[in-house]
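Input chain follows. Return structure tokens only.
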Amino acid sequence: MALLADDAKDRAEQLLLLTERLTEYIAEETRRIEAREPPLSGAQADEKNRMVNAYRLELTRIKHDRTLIEGAPAALLDKLKHRTNTLHERLALHETALGAVKLVTEGLVQAMAEETARQRGGSAGYGARGTIEGPSGPIPTIVDRSA
């Protein structure tokens, strides 16, 4: 969904509002990650996704046709640049927070996989023919605080 603007000033104003709102959403998501709360969901998540897509599409349009924004007042363009820099700063913080979550999650998955392998590997015994036999059915895996 592209922005519907009358002129360059209108487009810059809409893009400024979109940038500010996206910055708020990114800041809120980062706060939720750091507070270990669930991510945005429902209508908020849908709105954020629509805004991200509109922002991406509009930046692509402007990149291909600079005249869409060139006629906007210099003060408005400076404000837009400032807000865009703020958005990029918030996105960098968001990326760092997501990286930390990813690292912890991958560590937990690795620990569970190692514990499962340890529990399953230790249960093999000798069979009637003197060879080591694996389990014949499903093996329950216990993952507790000691895992």
